[in-house]
Amino acid sequence: MRLRMNSLFCMVFILFSILILRLGVVQILKGESYAAQADNTEVTAINLSVPRGKIYDKNHKLVVYNIPEKAITYTPPKNPQPGELIELAKKLDTFLSMNDKDIDKVTDRDMKDIWLLEHNNGQNFISKKEESLYKQEKLTDKDLYQIKLSRITKSDLHGVDKNMAAIYRKLSTAIALTPSMIKNENVTEEEYAKASENLENLPGVGVTTDWKRGRTYGDTFKNMLGKVTSADEGIPAEKVDSYKAKGYKLNDRVGKSYIEELYEVVLQGQKEKIKTVTDQKGHVVDTEIVSEGQIGKDIVLTIDMEFQAQVEKIMQEELVNAIQKPHTDTLDTAFVVAMEPKTGRILSMSGKVYNRQSREFVDFTPGTFTYAFEQGSVVKGATVLTGFQTGVRDIGEFDYDAPLQIKGTKQISSYTNMGAINDLKALERSSNVYMWKTAIEILGGQYLPNQSLNMDSEKIETIRYYFNQYGLGVLTGIGFDNETAGIKGNDVRNYFQIAIGQLDTYTPMQIAQYITTIANGGYRMKPQLVKEIREPTKNNDELGNVIDEINPVVLNKVDMSAEMMKRVQQGFWLVTHGSQGTARGFFKDEQYNAAGKTGTSESYKNGVKTWNLSFAGYAPFDDPDIAIAVIVPNAYRDGYAQPHSAANIISQRVFRAYFAQKKKDD
């Protein structure tokens, strides 16, 4: 026992001696060196992006989602050396094939830079005289660099592998200490496996899972859903300052148009935070996850995607049918906007342009709020209401519809002489004369045959003020920066033409807001495309809890009596059901009981005089569920005696599709 105890004490003594000796070496011999290294390490916080939130339609059907993709990344040190990047690019080139789009981005300048790195930095191109001038500071580093580039021939570049050059380009443009994508599209199993197996020999290279956006409904509503920038694009250049102020990095993927952009903050999610420790050379020596990220929140649209698909199909079919008619060589476009009158929620919106050469359709849905033109008689409801509001017209007031002869101008008239008519008949039969006389009185003028009107041009703003209350001539509030309020006409002698939609221009979205305001009794509603924000879920078939419900927004209440509004509503019902209604042939026998107003207006396209067709209406009349605006600009050439009725037919079919879909959903 004594021998064993002595042996144990000896071993402990020897071990402590070794430990003390080692501590002495560390603290005395190498203490300063280790202290310097410790002082030179630096901790940096890095934020990593996470998948975006999903987008659902109003019926909770998945519309936009994330498709996972294998990805190979590179996290560069603080000061990467070009030589190190070349060596790394060559290693990756042995198993990694870049996509064509990445190879196509490689420029001659990139190839020359690589050639210089592989050939002693091009020193052989510099003559002794040039070197002497450089030493005398008569030539700069930049001058020598340009000389070298100019002396590299095309044959020299044949030895530079383009695939390797594409990899080098990715490595050299990566942001220090921030994971950047080398390849995140079409990464093969073999490429992913080889990268994973050789990470020790590939400093800074990593493997992960990236994502791309997928769509359930293909091209339906595609433009308005918007786009997301790629890892190469990062933040759009024109919005760098704005995004950086919110904590974004230059290579962050962000929404770059419409819904993806408008709801960027919601869809982006909470980034993963990583603490990175680097040594004095800038190389990463340790990483630690500070907080895990959270994928973006999901949004629920107001759009019914099945109804949207039907609307787009209807528009395309009726455009093709109308184009078969004579004198329609100027026709190629149509717009539809459908809204809930009581909430302002958009049920469907679409713009279609037909290419006669390719016989294909191009989506132009943003045109519903960026494209304004003469809308014609659909605005006559606003004219009658403005007459009531300004006191120049009384409910039920009669006037005589006969051609007007204004001094110094050609005779103007309605499409037929209507004789004595009141406000209801003026709407039902779409009297121009009744509307003109209303506007002339508001403008302080008086019509007398063969006399000047003597209008007060400044009072045009009175009419515009009241039109604005319905959404005509002002931004609708849909939320996109490129929305237009339309163009104000400046033909002073013809200011009264505003009464029939022939002076100022309006967008389809403005017309939709206007008809919605009349349908709901005078509340101008803000058009909305999103109704809910929800917690994210990993399963595409499940929705998370509601975080925020987007409530309807009343922009203003029209200042008038309920009796005045009901009078115009009754006039709109006569348009579709009256014995002389301009749209009775399309809506009189329809079960959904629509009310509305037709429109025809003069326009021009490529110097040719044309006619725009429009319809704005709602249904059911007594308790409306839907309000629509349909516009077909440049529908046919002037002088065509038998015009088509594309706007009315599209409206009829859209109403039918909506109520059929509603019945199916119920």
TrEMBL record:
Topology in the lipid bilayer: Single-pass membrane protein
The UniProt record lists the keyword Transmembrane: yes
Keyword tags: Cell membrane, Cell shape, Cell wall biogenesis/degradation, Membrane, Peptidoglycan synthesis, Transmembrane, Transmembrane helix
Subcellular location: Cell membrane; Membrane
InterPro entries: Beta-lactam/transpept, Beta-lactam/transpept-like, PBP_dimer, PBP_dimer_sf, PCN-bd_Tpept
One GO MF term attached to the UniProt entry: peptidoglycan L,D-transpeptidase activity
Domain (Penicillin-binding protein transpeptidase): residue spans on this chain: 335-649
GO cellular component terms given for this protein: plasma membrane
Example of a GO biological process term: cell wall organization
Keyword Cell wall biogenesis/degradation recorded: yes
Source taxon at top rank: Bacteria
Domain Penicillin-binding protein dimerisation: 49-287
Family membership: Belongs to the transpeptidase family.
Listed name of the protein: Penicillin-binding protein
